């Protein structure tokens, strides 16, 4: 994680959004994980009651829609959505913190921009839709389709020349909100732009921010090369 000293003049972090319910959702997930660990550590013969649930779809795209619905039932905003190419991990990872600032969810779309019937139904009440990635990632037909489905919704695209520039663009957008402070320092995650594993691990923290942070605070994910900071970063 990379830290910067916060500047009150340059970064007025005053925006507040409804965060409590989503933190409860994250807390429930954490409790479930702790319960599973405790179950493994319990002596043989001891009785434990562990409730598990699977969120799934026929493919990654339908799974993302199902997860979005599950998150909404747990308190996430059902009107704000972030759309990304589900065949390429980079934009989805940088979108995690953006979804956190909006208290919304991420929907994966195929590279041709097709929006499935389940995704259409899921976004029936959308008021704010952000597309992350350039036109090579998701075509202009995504904007066209969403404007037809939700004429009154705000449709925005965030993109850069490559994955590094796109991640930087997303982070710059989040600067208008509340970036979490760790040990008093405004923070971002730095992860490899060529390998998704580390950034996947960071994604929940990017969305929810540290437990002791302000209710709206998130931690942007910045992608970089392995041997040096990429110029956009």
TrEMBL record:
InterPro entries linked: Bact_Sporulation_Assoc (IPR051922), Cell_wall-bd_2 (IPR007253)
Pfam family, one: CW_binding_2
Signal peptide region: none
Protein name, per record: Cell wall-binding repeat-containing protein
The species this protein was found in: marine metagenome
